[in-house]
Amino acid sequence: MSAVTRSAAPALPTIAITMGDPAGIGPEIIMKALARPDVHALCNPLVVGDAARLRRAAAITGVTLPVVALSDASEARFPQQAVQCLDLKVTPVDLPFGQVSAAGGETAYRCVEKAAQLVQSGVVQAICTAPLNKEALHAAGHKFPGHTELLAHLTGTPEVSMMLTSPKLRVIHVTTHIGLLDAIEKIEPGLVERVITRGHDVLVKAGITTPKIGVCAINPHAGENGLFGRGEEAVKITPAVEACQAKGWDVRGPLPADTLFFLAGRGDYDLVVAMYHDQGHGPIKVLGLEAGVNVTVGLPVIRTSVDHGTAFDIAGTGVADERSLIEALRQAVDLAPR
């Protein structure tokens, strides 16, 4: 009888988890998430941050999992009942929780910088980011609005988009971290078309062959045929929608945002294109911060993130909810190349 040949199980992707601002809840939610065996069954998690800070977070949260400090990512051993941490040793030992500081901003920057290098060199397959604080980042001299723009800079990517996902809704943004008046000025048909294209492409790669995409208007009631606004829908959005429809894609709009989000929430659309930050973030956050995941679309690397901030008001108390980080890790695994 001939021997039966069995194919080896596919290797788990290694995901770089950046610690974020050490004064925030990042260290705590990382330790709580990695204490769950199902997370280690999902991927090989490699934390990029500060081992001492993670140990302090473990003591605060009651997590007994040991933290292994690594000087090089090649030293990581999976699977192992321990947190593997590429130890950057940049966080001051006495840095207090819950306070904005240049030191915290510098740690957050260095974590993202190192993670980007690891992905580009093929050591890890995706990045999952814990939250940073923009004020602290700026205080450290890194003038980026957030993770999205920072990663675009580090990878030499000229333009990316922010996508928020939850079990019931996906939203991609045309503009993000700028004021509302500046956002309306920035919106133009070429930008809208490129954002729709990035959203369409990522859904197709995820297995949705003919995604149904709804595009938000800027004004209430989509301008009501010129009654509201100054004709922004006709000038800034409609040409982009028509260009995408000419490609054979199922793209509809501009549609009143309140109606569109209701329809998308019940499953009529695979993706909503929001024109500005709060238009897209509001509905996702109403559905629950613990379910929201931030995906940066257009980078040469896969990057997912929790859909909440550093929560300085509860940092250091051990009560932070780790569920959004776990969902972000799941999304990173789904999108990571094998």
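^ that was protein a. below is b, sequence first then the tokens
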Amino acid sequence: MVPASTVAAGSVGLVETRYFDLPDPVHLECGRELGSVRVAYETYGTLSPERDNVILVCHALSGDAHAAGFSTARPEASTRDGFAAEDRDGVVGQALGWWDGMIGPGKAFDTDRYFVVSTNLLGGCRGTTGPSSTDPATGRPYGPDFPVITVADMVRTERAFLDALGIERLAAVAGGSLGGMQALEWAILYPDQVDSIVVIASTHALHPQGMAWNAIAREAITRDPGWQGGHYYGTGTSPDAGMGVARMVGHVTYLSAPALHDKFGRRLQFADDIRYTLTEPEFEVESYLRHQADSFVKRFDANTYLTMSRALTYFDLARQYGDGSLAKALESVTARTLLITFSSDWLYPPVASKEIDDALRTLGKPTELHLIDAPYGHDCFLLEEQRQTPIVRRFLAGR
């Protein structure tokens, strides 16, 4: 637990993740029905009497419900995955929410004005029902028997959860990466229930290069003998090696060549000269990636990684809703749209956000696009919080 004395001004303070069991099954796009769904969530700020000040914040692949403030129960490893997060946050950051710089009094999502809700996604491994959860039909973890889910399934689960809280309408839905995909999905599935969406470092469909890297990561997991076809729970063996490689691959895609060069160059890690070893890290960048892998496997479930990765690759608004046309897919959107993208993000490149902006403009929909010149690649949405904040604040204020 973080001492209260360490909580800085502008923080939402100490927070505890809570849990809610949905009263009804969730109907999935694959045709299956998932019952006994538990949702992990946190809230920040005060719900207005009219219940009209709610912002839903959606996380990326490896995030969780703990988006802001300091967790009352320090996790084994932080979900603040931005590039060199340890350098930025120090030890205290282990308990800090993954988007703390954006959520709180006076911040982009101002908790003096808004009631911010954050949930762990359906299929997750941080409290919401996912592959590592117990299947009530068998009494054992779902494992590979957990349904294949889509971003739309995640959003329908969020809708069911908010219904249970008595929240009918959202002032905004916001998120980066996979979180931005959810925001777009919300605007299409529930056009009369969302006033605005904030889509950061995201896309209407993952580009083929991104799909390829995701495929490599999944292969690394499923080819690890420790995966055991997904039935590794309780065996004492898990696919840590494959998960580590998947994390390394994923982490590199979140960065940029200039960021890696500036941070590491070709500096050696342990010696003044090379040691002629094939298996041990020689360079700082190799050691960094191994550290990322070792930290990740302590807090994330391999089957959840597979589930989330597949949902990312299935996401394609034009295919899902527009018979191949993005403009047609967005016809029902009534929400004001804010798109923020970053110059060095090659995984979710600026052109994807421009395609969304162009389609909305063609339809006469209210939209604005901001390109931020920053060097950190896809991780910019977690790192460039100060530059995003004034843009988001102006947008939410309707200016």
